[in-house]
Amino acid sequence: MKPVVKQGASVEARPVERGEKAFIQVLIGPEDGAPHFITRKFTILPGGRIPKHKHPSIEHEQYVLSGRMKIYLGDEVREVAAGQAVYIPPDTPHAYVNEGDEPVEFLCVIPKTNAYATEWLED
User: Which CATH number fits domain 10-120: 3.30.70.890, 2.60.120.10, 2.40.70.10, 2.60.120.330?
Assistant: First the structure.
């Protein structure tokens, strides 16, 4: 294992599965030799969303870098903005909506596991 330093801008932004105007970049992951965690950056453009879904065995630890958005967490709706951190326990339904006029960017750290699965709860 070797240390890795790279520019986030050099990492390909791919569309999020089933998302609208939503993109993901895997900043650090298994390809970099990281054995335990995957660090991802999400960007949701104005009017964009990631529909409700859950991961049976995966927790999420998130930090909002810029913008503001609504996060649906189980039966709750929370508005979060730059500087706020979010913890999503395993098996918790969640969704993201950017109703603002600027992009929202957030980091999301998940454990590296072979049991990663996404259950989509809406289209």
Answer: 2.60.120.10
